[in-house]
Amino acid sequence: MTKYFPTNPEGFYGIGNTAIVLGDYDLGLKNLKIAEGLYEKDGEVKADVKYMFGILYALKEDYRYSLPYLEEFIQNIKKMMDI
Fold first, then answer.
1. pTM (2 d.p.)
2. Alpha-carbon gap, residue 8 to 20, rounded angstroms
């Protein structure tokens, strides 16, 4: 998908998503960075992209990078739920 639609962030996000199952966290993070840039061009980065960054960094046991993403995601959820 990324080959035929290089300006569509969904393909890059999909690679990041499947990296959790495949265990290739570095490839997932690389593709999420690309997706993030493409989403920014279109407007706003989706909350699930931030969440995915947090998960992949946590799986790599790089918690100093993981925590800010997960905290931001939690704040977004709280806003949506009016907590």
1. 0.86
2. 21
